[in-house]
TrEMBL record:
It comes from Glycine max (Soybean). Residues 8-127 form the Gfo/Idh/MocA-like oxidoreductase N-terminal domain. The gene is LOC100785424. It holds the Pfam family GFO_IDH_MocA. Residues 153-266 form the GFO/IDH/MocA-like oxidoreductase domain. This is Uncharacterized protein.
């Protein structure tokens, strides 16, 4: 098999701004290549291709269907509005195209299940675009939870706090698709809280919380779309853990993740998008106590640095392509890890909405 045939050939449906980042990631990943780009008009797709310097080998289409009918396209990336995901993801799977879909994946778990049923029945790989999960820093931190009684472990997780906020411009709050109910009706809950909910689940080994509660400070725009939301998650077993998330289009930029265990704690201030592409860090504190008279601490946080050869979005593409290669070349089954992560995240998103509808009462999962 030639090297070219081992490369996963991507088509992109849509010219959203995030598509620029993922197109670059596809170019950087050693086992992927961009094969086709489509918009609802050929003129828009041609302009997008020119602005991003795509090579002449990238085919430009004026409809999404043309990408799905292209026999040279192995997989599609969907940066479309959330309301369009189920239609095009299901259609892509039916054409035997592997599916990388931008988050939030769906408007509710019923829609997501339609997507997951389609990818499973057609034997194709699914993954959502939560890039931070693919950074080596994430795996490094994961190991700090893996040996509960080790001196280098933070111990069983007891408390999690995460934020994802951005100071949206008046133009954004007026016209961006993320504040339009017919396009991305989840608003900040889907666009931002997907990360915070996902981080809380990740810290708990993807155990679903016992209950989810929305706090009464949520803010909606005139169309009823959530632009700011705070919620809590509670786990009863095997040890009680409490998580808080705050996500907003109305606050200064933040991407904080703090995790406290019985023996230590760690803090990331850039957990969704690292400050730099070539390395990322986090603060780790183990065995902290107050000194005599409580006038200081016995230890200071250690700043742990983790280097990476590729940006996290390219690592995501590389991992997705590796999984597809296993299906294509070795007869492997599609990985169920990524669909399960997306579905559990969606279940919690749905629970936050239900809690809001119930006047911020706890919703059991």
């Amino acid at each position: 098999m030639s090297e070219n045939s081992k490369t996963l050939r991507f088509g992109i449906l849509g010219c959203a701004n995030i598509a620029r980042k993922v197109a670059r990631a596809i170019a950087l990943a050693p086992n992927a290549t961009l094969c086709a780009i489509a918009s609802r008009s050929r003129e828009k797709a041609e302009k997008f291709a020119a602005e991003n310097g795509f090579p002449a080998t990238v085919r430009v289409y004026g409809s999404y269907d043309q990408v799905l009918e292209d026999p040279c396209v192995d997989a599609v990336y969907l940066p479309l509005p959330t309301s369009l995901h189920v239609r095009w993801a299901v259609m892509a799977a039916s054409k035997k195209k592997h599916v990388l879909v931008e988050k939030p994946v769906a408007l509710d778990v019923a829609e997501l299940d339609r997507i997951l049923d389609a990818v499973e029945s057609n034997g194709v790989q699914f993954m959502d675009g939560s890039m931070w999960l693919h950074h080596p820093r994430t795996a490094h931190i994961q190991r700090l939870f893996s040996v509960p009684h080790s001196a280098s472990s933070v111990g069983p997780v007891r408390f999690i706090h995460s934020t994802s906020t951005m100071p949206a411009t008046p133009e954004f709050l007026e016209s961006d698709i993320r504040v339009k109910p017919e396009l991305d009706g989840l608003g900040a809950l889907g666009d931002l809280a997907w990360y915070c909910i996902g981080a809380s689940l990740w810290a708990k080994g993807y155990q679903l919380p016992t209950s989810v509660t929305a706090l009464p400070d949520s803010t909606r725009n005139d169309s009823g779309v959530i632009v700011s939301i705070t919620a809590s998650l509670l786990w009863d077993q095997p040890n009680q853990t409490f998580a808080t998330i705050h996500c907003s289009f109305l606050s200064h930029t933040s991407m904080d993740l703090a995790i406290c265990g019985s023996n230590g704690s760690l803090h990331l201030r850039d957990f969704i998008i690292p400050y730099g592409e070539t390395s990322a860090s986090f603060d780790l504190t183990l065995g902290a106590k107050f000194v005599d008279l409580h006038i200081g601490w016995n230890v200071r946080p250690e700043e742990v640095h983790v280097a990476n050869e590729l940006p996290q979005e390219a690592l995501m593409v590389q991992e997705f392509s590796r999984l597809v290669a296993g299906i294509r070349d070795c007869g492997s089954k599609p990985s169920t890890k990524w669909p399960e992560i997306s579905r559990k995240t969606q279940l919690v998103v749905d629970a936050v909405i239900k809690s809001l509808e119930l006047g911020c009462k706890p919703v059991c999962l």
